[in-house]
Amino acid sequence: MRIVAFDYRDIPNFPQSTVHGHAGRLVFGTLKGRPCVCMQGRFHLYEGYPIQKITMPMRIFKLLGVETVILTNAAGGLNQDYKVGDIMIIKDHLNMPGFAGNNPLAGPNNERFGVRFPCMSDAYDRELQQLALDVGSELGYSDFLREGVYCVLGGPSFETIAECRMLHKLGADAVGMSTVHEVIVARHCGMRVFALSLITNEAVMDYDSEEKANHEEVLQTGKQRAEQLERLVSTVVTRIEHNNNFA
Ligand SMILES: O=P(O)(O)O[C@@H]1C[C@H](O)[C@@H](CO)O1
Ligand SMILES: Nc1nc2[nH]cnc2c(=O)[nH]1
């Protein structure tokens, strides 16, 4: 596969990755004949970027002709049935920064991209969720493939025990620091969205627990599941129905 990659620092006005483990490259290539563009590293609220800057790549993708966005993240498992290494297909989200008014669509609406009040009850494409379940089952991943609700917080501090208990009671299965803002902007401009969380650590829910969330464990679990995640995502990509607008 031929690829062309650009460092974020060489793209005018593009934010820079500041997080260890995020390479900071935009990579263009084809996967079984399908044109793809991949971000090696994303941006987070806790890096100090305005929420509109974090999500700017979604609008660039829209302008490039992208139809489907696939997002992945590392997340802490709140659901007591989840284990480290599980892959959760995101079926819905809780947007905690949004509750406080920090929404990437706040401010004047750019009608060129979408409507003022976009619907979010269909944010995560159901056909793509089913496709991922089918592909996961074919690949023998069913034992560690889940479906659940992702909750975004601002970070960078991990959650307290009381916060984890509250988020779980509110209906979240996993907690993280990304993805939701990108999903909102991608849906606003009409792209299909599919998203996965890798459960990199168990959220600490018990005052007797000795566990402590830490970024090293997040990176390590990411490496351990990288191959399976890559196979799942690449197989889903090759099976997505498309509109032939790149043919
Ligand atoms: O970019 P994601 O959401 O995958 O990264 C998560 C959230 C923090 O950046 C980091 C914490 O270890 O992992
Ligand atoms: N907020 C949050 N983000 C994470 N990213 C990976 N693990 C976690 C976690 O436990 N909490």
Automatic annotation (TrEMBL):
<dbReference type="Pfam" id="PF01048">
    <property type="entry name" value="PNP_UDP_1"/>
</dbReference>
<feature type="domain" description="Nucleoside phosphorylase">
    <location>
        <begin position="6"/>
        <end position="237"/>
    </location>
</feature>
<keyword id="KW-0660">Purine salvage</keyword>
<dbReference type="InterPro" id="IPR011270">
    <property type="entry name" value="Pur_Nuc_Pase_Ino/Guo-sp"/>
</dbReference>
<keyword id="KW-0808">Transferase</keyword>
<protein>
    <recommendedName>
        <fullName>Purine nucleoside phosphorylase</fullName>
        <ecNumber>2.4.2.1</ecNumber>
    </recommendedName>
</protein>
<dbReference type="InterPro" id="IPR011268">
    <property type="entry name" value="Purine_phosphorylase"/>
</dbReference>
<dbReference type="GO" id="GO:0006166">
    <property type="term" value="P:purine ribonucleoside salvage"/>
</dbReference>
<dbReference type="InterPro" id="IPR000845">
    <property type="entry name" value="Nucleoside_phosphorylase_d"/>
</dbReference>
<keyword id="KW-0328">Glycosyltransferase</keyword>
<comment type="similarity">
    <text>Belongs to the PNP/MTAP phosphorylase family.</text>
</comment>
<comment type="function">
    <text>Catalyzes the phosphorolytic breakdown of the N-glycosidic bond in the beta-(deoxy)ribonucleoside molecules, with the formation of the corresponding free purine bases and pentose-1-phosphate. Preferentially acts on 6-oxopurine nucleosides including inosine and guanosine.</text>
</comment>
<dbReference type="GO" id="GO:0004731">
    <property type="term" value="F:purine-nucleoside phosphorylase activity"/>
</dbReference>
<dbReference type="GO" id="GO:0005737">
    <property type="term" value="C:cytoplasm"/>
</dbReference>
<comment type="pathway">
    <text>Purine metabolism; purine nucleoside salvage.</text>
</comment>
<dbReference type="InterPro" id="IPR035994">
    <property type="entry name" value="Nucleoside_phosphorylase_sf"/>
</dbReference>
